[in-house]
Amino acid sequence: VERSVVDQSLLAADAAAPFGVRTDPERIRRAVGEALDDPCSMIVVDGGDLIRREEAVVRGDPSVALREPLLALDELVGSVRSRLDPARDLLLLVSPTSPATDALPHLGVAIAEGPGFGAGDALTSGSTGASGIVALTDVAPTVLLHQGVARPESMVGRAWFRENGGDDPVESAVELDLEARFAHRWQPIVSGAFGVADLLLVIGAFWFFRRRRRPEDRPTSGRLLEWAALAALSFPFVAFASTPLPADDLGPALYGAALVVLTVLVAGAVTRSGRSVLERTLIVCVATILLLAVDLLAGARLQLTGIWGNDAILGGRFAGLGNIGFAVLGSCSIAAAALLVHLRKDSWGVPAASVVLTLAVLIDGMPFLGRDVGGVLALVPALLLTGVLLFGRKVTFRSVVLAILIAGALLTAFAAIDLARPEDQQTHLARLVDDIKQEGTGAFTDALDRKLDANIGVFGESPASFLIPPIWALFAWLVLRGKGRWQILRARHPELHAALVGGLSLALFGGVVNDSGVVVVAVVMSVLAPVAVVMLLDGERHGEAT
């Protein structure tokens, strides 16, 4: 700090440059050289020209050239690099902001050269858990590790480390940025379109069941409604499976068309399987669960830049299961368990349903899979409630307390597993434990407060979000207190009714304990709606509804 140079002595007059000045290359090289002559532990260098160029653009002058300040900075980096000993010194380059001229945010640039980092490697950290991505909060722990200084437990980030960067890490980084920006921009639109399609399905089902007079009839409209329900249920599978498509190259129109075509093909293939409508529904749910599980085992490649995956630009989560993935996994698991009990009442239905519900918790909560703390808190009570109803028991105060205790025990077990892993592989669950050690239970309540604030913020950003709570309340009333077909469904098929109650619980709990929880509620409801339509269609086919 005593040797810092931050005054105007580094500047030279230049009428063509922003604000009439630019960084004098000779003066800044001299200042850096003098700093390097002293045994400093760390030197921070900022060329300045890029910041002035950004400020000029912000103030309404987009014509300021970018090439000149970039070339000046490149020359400065080369000068600094030439003075360093790669066997001893660590050089970090970071640019965590996006150009002011770009309407959409970018991923920043992060480069490391020196001990522990080789040419062509990719960077990652325990904070992100994703190859090729590190966080700004990881810079300080990386510097401390290089200096042999222990990281304070209160420090949020984790040190960078190297991974295999593949054939062309620069090309991979550019592609990652493009795909992440595409997903960031179009995820709300795709989700909104899916919600509208789901709403049309519900309206069509309402019209169909209001117009039906003879249960033994099966007109074309009934078959179309059944196919539409299967197509809606197939979309989450397609949304994740389509991640390898070059979405940015295709553009929104072609990519959207690809999603529609793939959904139609999946729904058509399931429909042509020759099985009953409930068996087809079970196939779609199980296929979606398996896809998510296999992807998480393989490193969650379908999550990072998927249209329904983690938003790398937003930066809330880079690895494991995101909010939408959690909602899809939980709702499909509940539906699959109920269908297994319904279809195989006298054989292996109950054991298979127990396996499905157990696997859902493990997939979501294990540190090397879903690594989802909030998901476990929501999923365990919802799945236990579903299991209690599926196995013919009543929900009591004792069972509710037991569900809470089991959720806490599982979180404790997952935390112990996470803490036993190397620090650079630990997830935010281990970091939460560290925070609780430092700050007490206040760290946990602060996390819940942040999630609540995030949920409230979503309502402010999207007025349509205000429609979701009343829709959830109406659906809950229909399931729990409704008359007519809902009442018949509850009496004749308690296992299917259990799925709807469990799904409603998942939406409620998941909406409370997750960031952007309103998205969780919307996705769970979007999966429940086609399942409910299929249930009613099957009941009418067998003359069980009037």
Give the biggest beta sheet.
Answer: 2 strands, antiparallel
Give the proportion of residues in helices.
55-70%
Strand content: under 5%
Strand element count: 6
Class based on secondary structure composition and strand pairing: mainly alpha
**What is the count of helical runs?**
19
- What's the N-to-C terminus distance? 81 Å
Strand order within the widest sheet?
A: 1-2
What does the average pLDDT come to?
A: 80
Stretches where pLDDT is under 50 for at least 5 consecutive residues are none
Order of helices and strands: EEHHHEEEHEHHHHHHHHHHHHHHH
What gyration radius follows from the Cα positions, in whole Å? 27 Å
Question: Which descriptor suits the 3D outline?
Answer: elongated
Key features of this structure:
mainly alpha, 546 residues, two-stranded antiparallel ribbon
Notes on the structure:
- This protein is mainly alpha-helical.
- The strands form three sheets. Strands 1-2 form a two-stranded antiparallel sheet.
- The longest helix has 43 residues.
- The model has no long low-confidence stretch (mean pLDDT 80).
Topology:
Blueprint: E1 11-13, E2 21-23, H1 25-37, H2 49-58, H3 67-82, E3 91-95, E4 109-113, E5 122-125, H4 139-147, E6 160-163, H5 169-211, H6 220-241, H7 247-271, H8 277-297, H9 301-304, H10 323-343, H11 349-365, H12 373-390, H13 397-419, H14 428-439, H15 442-461, H16 468-481, H17 485-492, H18 494-513, H19 517-541
Antiparallel strand pairs: 1-2, 3-4, 5-6
